[in-house]
Structures are given as structure tokens and as C-alpha cells.
Design goal:
Length: 214
């Protein structure tokens, strides 16, 4: 399947994407994960993105489109992809539409995961991420077995730099200004499905039903 997962930071896009990859071999493509890996590796891309990321601002559209035009050409995209955290602005969405048309590809749907703001704030402040494999934990509802150590790969599980209260508040404002308008952009294109849900299972069930997957 080829989907865009739309939703505020903390709406559960990453968790839903990971579950969907198990259904049909589609790959999760998270621009946030790609950028964090670039920052950790100290590459040119990482250096350009780091300050904006730390503040909870968006990285430039040009940088993101450069990453995505390469990524979508890779072999593992043949079985489908789940775009997690991309597009995040109208210019990115327009550039993606053109890129997909040039590649002769078509998305199945744009899934807007709608979660109440108080749930999101609670989730983001209690979320922890493995810096090695990007597995996601929650100190309240899903802590790693050993504090600070990833169950899956043994890597360090930490609070992300952009999950301080100030950066979170900025990320939500940026989302409302720059990314939320994508819902009406894709609604006009007849591609939007909105799921109001606080559990990833509900979101997965709605997507399966919409795409006719058993
Ligand atoms: P995420 O893990 O998706 O919340 O992304 C973390 C950070 O990476 C964001 O707060 C932005 O600074 C940056 N980022 C990720 N995806 C994009 C994008 N599509 N456009 C601009 N900035 C992005």
C-alpha cells in the first residue's frame, strides 16, 4: 500500500506505520528518522537540519524534497510505502504530487490521524525513543524492561531533544500553521480519510477496512 500518514506530532503515525509494514511488506519512510540519523552521523544534511529540529521548527522544503526524491527511487519502495511525517507543508505536498506523477505512481489514501491535544501532550512528554533502532517507548504505558535500554536492540532509550515542553509546544503550533492545511488539500483531491482515535489498533482497523485488506 502507498499511504501518507498525516497527524500532529504524537498522534501515533510512527507506531501505525510500523504495524502496517507487517501487513504487506510496505516500508515506513520517516523524514524525522532520516534527519535524526543524519544529525547523529554528523553529515552535511545533519548539520543543515540540526538547529531547526532542536527548536521544533521545520527543516527547509528544498532539503526535504532532496531527501525524498532519492528515497522514493530505492528498490524497497516497490512493495509500497507509508510516508510518516512527510509531506508537512503545502509546497512539499505539491512537489510530491508532481514527483509521483512523473514516476507514474498513485497513492491509495491520505490517513489523517486525529487525536485530542491533551492526549498528544501527555504522550509526547512521556515518550522515549531508542537512538539506535528508533523503537518507541512510553514511560507510563510501555517502558523498556530495563530503564534506558532498548528491548529490541540494546541501544540507549532517551527523551528526544525536541521533546522538551517548549519544543513540543512549538511543534504543535508549527503543525497547526503549516501541516494541518494539508487535510483540506487532500480532501479536495478526494484522497483524505480521517480517523479520530487514541489507539493504533482502531486506526489500523479503519485503514484495513478502507483499503479492503483482511
Ligand atoms: P518527526 O520525527 O516527524 O516529528 O520529525 C522531527 C523533526 O524533523 C521535525 O520537528 C522537523 O524539524 C523535522 N522534519 C521531519 N520531517 C519534516 C518535513 N517533512 N518537513 C520539514 N521538517 C521535517
Amino acid at each position: 500500500m502507498k499511504l501518507i500518514l498525516l497527524g500532529a506530532p504524537g498522534a501515533g503515525k510512527g507506531t501505525v506505520a510500523k504495524l502496517l509494514t507487517q501487513l504487506d511488506g510496505s516500508v515506513q519512510i520517516s523524514t524525522g528518522d532520516i534527519l535524526r540519523a543524519a544529525v547523529a552521523a554528523g553529515t552535511e544534511l545533519g548539520k543543515k537540519a540540526e538547529a531547526a529540529m532542536k527548536a521544533g521548527d521545520l527543516v527547509s522544503d528544498d532539503l526535504i524534497m532532496g531527501i525524498m526524491s532519492e528515497r522514493l527511487k530505492q528498490d524497497d519502495c516497490k512493495n509500497g510505502y507509508l510516508l510518516d511525517g512527510f509531506p508537512r507543508t503545502i509546497p512539499q505536498a505539491e512537489a510530491l504530487t508532481k514527483m509521483l506523477a512523473d514516476m507514474g505512481e498513485k497513492l491509495d489514501a491520505v490517513v489523517n490521524i486525529d487525536v485530542p491535544r491533551d492526549v498528544i501532550l501527555d504522550r509526547l512528554t512521556t515518550r522515549r525513543t531508542c537512538t539506535k533502532c528508533n523503537a518507541i517507548y512510553n514511560v507510563k504505558s510501555n517502558p523498556p524492561k530495563v530503564e534506558g535500554v532498548c528491548d529490541k536492540c540494546g541501544g540507549p532509550v532517551v527523551q528526544r531533544d525536541d521533546e522538551t515542553e517548549q519544543a513540543i509546544s512549538n511543534r504543535l503550533d508549527v503543525y497547526n500553521q503549516k501541516t494541518a492545511p494539508l487535510a483540506s488539500f487532500y480532501e479536495k483531491a478526494g484522497m483524505l480519510m480521517t480517523v479520530t482515535a487514541t489507539s493504533s489498533d482502531t486506526v489500523i482497523a479503519a485503514i484495513k477496512s478502507k483499503l479492503g485488506i483482511k
